[in-house]
Amino acid sequence: MSSLPPLLSSMVKGPALLPIIQAETPHEAVAIAKALQDGGVGSVEVVLRTRQALAAITAIRTALPNLLVGAGTILSAADANACKDAGAQFLVSPASTPKLLEAMIDTGLPLAPGVATPSEIAMAYEYGLREVKFFPAHLSGGIEMLKALSGVFQQVKFCPTGGIGQHNLADFLALKNVFVVGGSWLTPANLVKAQQWSQITTLAAEATAIARQIKTAA
């Protein structure tokens, strides 16, 4: 296993937001990414849930070089390596196993492996990882669970994803053990299907304003 890669928190650009992009084509992916960037977002996660996901990563990297572009839904070593080859700058998984953690670490890319229980957090901690994805955040206890975990895992920072929106974004961002918040609420499927890019930009701008307000108050 390789030495630990840089922390994802040191790479995230702009506000502490990590919106998800799920696109059917590279062209659509670029349009979504540009709409988010126009709203102030500096980092995005392209999920491997469509056939063109890898091509989407490459396309966004080419079209929007100032945007930090990562890959999500990493489930295997093959996924991790393919995403790195496509140009992904960081990796995110929905779950954690020893083999998956080792494969993601071996890419040398910053990562946030998925955890939902103290045992999974402890496993990631044993591998030297101090930043993880808390998923599904809402169903796994949400804000109260993250508060409880902060006392035990004092060196671990979280990227909560799942069940987060404009209504509770500020509450998650205000937690000391949260370094970035992820999710798909900024790229709802109905807006993507209708190509309502300006509305996605508006949502992103609203979230960016919330994130900056929390940072200023901290």
From TrEMBL:
<keyword id="KW-0119">Carbohydrate metabolism</keyword>
<comment type="pathway">
    <text>Carbohydrate acid metabolism.</text>
</comment>
<keyword id="KW-0456">Lyase</keyword>
<protein>
    <submittedName>
        <fullName>2-dehydro-3-deoxyphosphogluconate aldolase / (4S)-4-hydroxy-2-oxoglutarate aldolase</fullName>
    </submittedName>
</protein>
<dbReference type="InterPro" id="IPR000887">
    <property type="entry name" value="Aldlse_KDPG_KHG"/>
</dbReference>
<comment type="similarity">
    <text>Belongs to the KHG/KDPG aldolase family.</text>
</comment>
<dbReference type="Pfam" id="PF01081">
    <property type="entry name" value="Aldolase"/>
</dbReference>
<dbReference type="GO" id="GO:0016829">
    <property type="term" value="F:lyase activity"/>
</dbReference>
<dbReference type="InterPro" id="IPR013785">
    <property type="entry name" value="Aldolase_TIM"/>
</dbReference>
<dbReference type="InterPro" id="IPR031338">
    <property type="entry name" value="KDPG/KHG_AS_2"/>
</dbReference>
<comment type="subunit">
    <text>Homotrimer.</text>
</comment>
